[in-house]
Amino acid sequence: MFELQTNDPPGENKGDQAAQYIPMSDVAKHHLAQDCWVVVDGKVYDHHPGGSQIIVQNGGRDVTSGEESFMSARTINYYGAASLDGYSMAENRGTFRKCRLLPRIMRDVLSVRPQTTIFGIESALPIYVSPSSNALLGHPDGELNITRGTTSKMNGAKGETEPGIRTGPFTATPPYHDARLNWNDLPRLKDLAGGVPIYLKGDVRLAKAHGLAGCILSNHGGRQLDQARTGFDSLRSIHAEDPQLVKDIEIYIDGGIRRGTDVLQALAFGARGVGLGRPFLYAQAAYGESGVIRAVRILENEIVTAMRLLGLTSLEQITPDMVECLQEIWR
C-alpha cells in the first residue's frame, strides 16, 4: 500500500484530507501522459520538478530503486552522511524553516537583477559551489561536471536585464587538514597565496583582525562537530550583536541552502553570497553537467521570483526587516 500525494492545493479536493492509501495494482493503471503516477519511497507522485517527461517514462511503476542505477550504496551513504546523530545537518535545513519572508506589494519589479560580486568577482547569482570532495563517487566526470555546469550556466545567466556577467570561483577541492594549523600560520599562507585574497571558514572578528578578505560561516554540512551552530544562525547573531562587522568584512554562509528563498534570507542579514554543496553533488551524479546546469537554472528562477514578490529589483535592496524569525517572535 502506498500513501497518495497529489498537486491539489490545501483546502481543495484531497489537499485537506488525511493521507490516502492505495494498492500498487491501482498505481499501475496510471501510466499515460495525461494520467501518470510513480512511486518513490512509498509515496505516489503525479508531478516532477524536472518536467512531466521524467515520470511519464516511468508511469505506473515504483522507481524507488532508480537512484541505485546511478549511485552506488557507497555514494549514497557518503553524500548523505553526517557526524554522530546528524543533528547539525538536520538543523542546517531546519533553521530556514523557522523564518518567514515579508513580501512587499505595488512595486515596479519589471527589471530584476540578481547579480552581485562574490569573492571579488562579478557573478550572475549570489551563489557558489561549496568545496565538496568525492564528486567522482557519483559520476565519472565528477568535479568536471560541476565546474563546466556552473561556469556554463552562470556565464549565460543574465537575470532580467543584461548578459555578460562573469562567474565567480566554483571549486570542489577537498579541504586540507592539519591539526597544527592556527592563526599564526596566516602570514605564511598569505605569502604563498601571492596576493590572492584569502577567505577563511571560522571566526569573523579574528578574520577581520588578521586582514582577511572575508569569512565563511559553516558547520561543514554537519559532517564534523555535531550540534555545532548553523551558518545562518551565526550570521543572524553577528548581525544582531555587531551590524557594522557585517559591513566591514565579506561574510558568506553555507549549510542547508536548498531554495532561492533560503538564499535571500541569508542576504537579508548581510551575507554576500551562499554556498551549496550536496545539491550539486546529487545533480551531477544523476544527470552530469546537464543536471548542474538545471540546478542553477532552478535556483535562478526561484531567486528572481522571490525578489519580485518581495518587491526587490536588486539584491542591495533586501533588508533584515523583510525576514521574520519565529524563535525570536516568542521571546
From TrEMBL:
<dbReference type="GO" id="GO:0006089">
    <property type="term" value="P:lactate metabolic process"/>
</dbReference>
<dbReference type="InterPro" id="IPR036400">
    <property type="entry name" value="Cyt_B5-like_heme/steroid_sf"/>
</dbReference>
<dbReference type="InterPro" id="IPR008259">
    <property type="entry name" value="FMN_hydac_DH_AS"/>
</dbReference>
<dbReference type="InterPro" id="IPR037396">
    <property type="entry name" value="FMN_HAD"/>
</dbReference>
<dbReference type="GO" id="GO:0004460">
    <property type="term" value="F:L-lactate dehydrogenase (cytochrome) activity"/>
</dbReference>
<protein>
    <recommendedName>
        <fullName>L-lactate dehydrogenase (Cytochrome)</fullName>
    </recommendedName>
</protein>
<feature type="domain" description="Cytochrome b5 heme-binding">
    <location>
        <begin position="19"/>
        <end position="64"/>
    </location>
</feature>
<dbReference type="InterPro" id="IPR013785">
    <property type="entry name" value="Aldolase_TIM"/>
</dbReference>
<keyword id="KW-0560">Oxidoreductase</keyword>
<dbReference type="InterPro" id="IPR001199">
    <property type="entry name" value="Cyt_B5-like_heme/steroid-bd"/>
</dbReference>
<dbReference type="InterPro" id="IPR000262">
    <property type="entry name" value="FMN-dep_DH"/>
</dbReference>
<dbReference type="Pfam" id="PF01070">
    <property type="entry name" value="FMN_dh"/>
</dbReference>
<feature type="region of interest" description="Disordered">
    <location>
        <begin position="148"/>
        <end position="169"/>
    </location>
</feature>
<dbReference type="Pfam" id="PF00173">
    <property type="entry name" value="Cyt-b5"/>
</dbReference>
<feature type="domain" description="FMN hydroxy acid dehydrogenase">
    <location>
        <begin position="203"/>
        <end position="328"/>
    </location>
</feature>
